[in-house]
Amino acid sequence: MIELLVFDVDGCLTNGKITYTQKGDEIKSFDVKDGLAISSWVRLGKKAAIITGRKSKIVERRAKELGISYLFQGVKNKFATLEALRMKLGLEFEQIAAIGDDLNDYRMLEAVGKSYMPADGSRYVKEVCDSVLHNRGGNGAVREMIEDIVIRDGLEEEFLKIWK
User: Fold this and answer.
1) What pTM did the predictor assign?
2) Using the 8-state DSSP alphabet, how is residue 8 labeled?
3) Is pLDDT of 93 > 90?
4) What's 134's domain CATH number?
5) Number of domains in the chain
6) No. of helices (H) and no. of strands (E), the chain
7) Is the per-residue pLDDT at 82 higher than 90?
8) Which residues of 57-86 are buried (b: 16+ CB within 10 A; e: fewer)?
9) 17 to each of 113, 129, 134, 143, 149, how far by Cα in Å?
10) How many other CB atoms are found less than 10 A from the CB of residue 148?
């Protein structure tokens, strides 16, 4: 059974586009449907983490809003960060699912028990992913991933009970 979900940000939680304002501020857009699924996962008593190569106050804010307890930004080696988190939480790789879309996610996706890629991810990442989702990054891919895990792990009734 999956206990920890790991999310890449750019290209998974967002569409991968980075917009800068005239003042140099960074803008990212997140899908509210993904957010509702993540917060529901956390309400089930499960764990969630973000491991991303970039640093952004926006990501920090989004993680806090959704109840994501583990946030790692500016990460060069996502696998090493995942391994340290796995050890800290006392989990096996089989208890972890992750979503990533590009080469810097490759080793992390290869290691976890269940790996996902948005429809618009890298063809090279597709080689190691268990599931290529129908939705694109930032457009419901994370929601699709979570619903797949909830059904797969027999948590659908509990998941829906949160909102009934």
Assistant:
1) 0.96
2) -
3) yes
4) 3.40.50.1000
5) 1
6) 7, 8
7) yes
8) ebbeebbeebebebbbbebeebbebbeebb
9) 29, 22, 19, 19, 27
10) 16
